[in-house]
Specification:
alpha+beta, Endonuclease, Chain A, two-stranded antiparallel ribbon, 10 helices, 50% helix, Arc Repressor Mutant, subunit A
Length: 309
């Protein structure tokens, strides 16, 4: 019999029949005419036989599945006796240290500062720092800069109006420090050489969590770098105007979210009185009579987007 199909179609059809066990390959057997056939040939298989063959395969699969489940149960039982955390990547000693005392935190920061050789980054939300703290930082920071350490600090825009912070910046920038500001910050952070980082304790005032895990420190430093790229340099009247515009835009953005004055002031590091003055000015400029209306008008005028730099 001659079939009106191509060779590739024939091969595809035979493969499909073989998959369902409806044909069987025969090697070196006699053909239908009783002649010896040197090459392999195919013979058809009754569907009942094909079904029986598949039933056997199904039985073997069930047996294999049972064996796999048995092994999984054994491994689960073994896991309970395995040392906790032994499968994790080894961390350096003291990868995470909780320090409750402010004095101890200061001691550890001074030690890390003395050992720092390449870079120090700091993120200081909440407006200007206390004058006494800034005065202590001047000596430490100028000593770092004198050793060739790169220093970058992020403040919120409100720090531009803080006289002690202005004086601090005026003293360290000539030595090579870089200071920038932005509306909102990711949180308080001090990191040295991208190997050790200090973040605030979430419950103990003045306490800190000291991170030495390479992955955790790298994550925090990368977040700082992204914020730094969008911040405004702390210098010049023109830059200050940009910062004020960013601050007012931040107030508008938080107003549009329905936040209260107290929350907005805390988020942006400004006093409640200053915050309410900005809000009153914005209401007047937008001709708005309510917070909802102010947010709506700001959105329609595209005043909530990122300020181009």
């Amino acid at each position: 019999m001659v079939l009106d199909i191509s060779e590739s179609e024939t091969i595809e059809a035979v493969d499909a029949l073989e998959e369902f066990h409806l044909v069987d390959r025969v090697n070196g057997s006699e053909n239908l005419d009783g002649m010896c056939d040197q090459g392999p040939w195919w013979r058809t298989v009754h569907p009942h036989m094909a079904a029986a063959h598949m039933a056997g395969a199904e039985s073997r699969l069930r047996r294999q599945l049972y064996e796999l489940n048995t092994r999984r149960d054994s491994l689960t039982a073994l896991a309970s006796a395995y040392p906790a955390g032994a499968h994790r990547e080894a961390q350096p000693p003291g990868a995470l240290e909780v320090v409750d005392s402010l004095e101890d935190v200061i001691t550890l920061i001074e030690q890390a500062s003395a050992e720092c050789t390449q870079e120090m980054i700091t993120c200081q939300p909440g407006g200007g720092r206390p004058p006494a703290e800034l005065e202590q930082a001047v000596d430490r920071d100028t000593a770092l800069l004198a050793r060739g350490v790169r220093m970058r600090t992020l403040y919120q825009h409100s720090a531009r109006r803080h006289a002690p912070t202005q004086a601090y910046v005026d003293r360290i920038t000539p030595a090579g420090a870089q200071v920038r500001t932005m509306t909102d910050l990711l949180g308080r952070l001090v990191a040295f050489d991208r190997r050790i980082a200090f973040v605030p304790h979430h419950q103990r005032r003045g306490g800190a969590v000291v991170l030495r895990s390479p992955a955790a420190v790298a994550y925090l430093c990368d977040a700082f770098d992204r914020a730094w790229d969008h911040a405004t340099p702390f210098c010049g009247a023109e830059r200050t105007k940009v910062a004020v515009d960013d601050l007012r835009q931040g107030i508008l953005r938080l107003l549009s979210k329905g936040l209260k004055d107290e929350v907005i002031a805390r988020r942006l590091g400004i006093s409640l009185r200053t915050c309410r003055k900005h809000i009153a000015d914005l209401f007047q400029e937008l001709h708005a009579e309510s917070r909802f209306q102010a947010g709506y008008l700001a959105a329609t005028r595209d005043l909530l987007g990122e300020t181009a730099r």
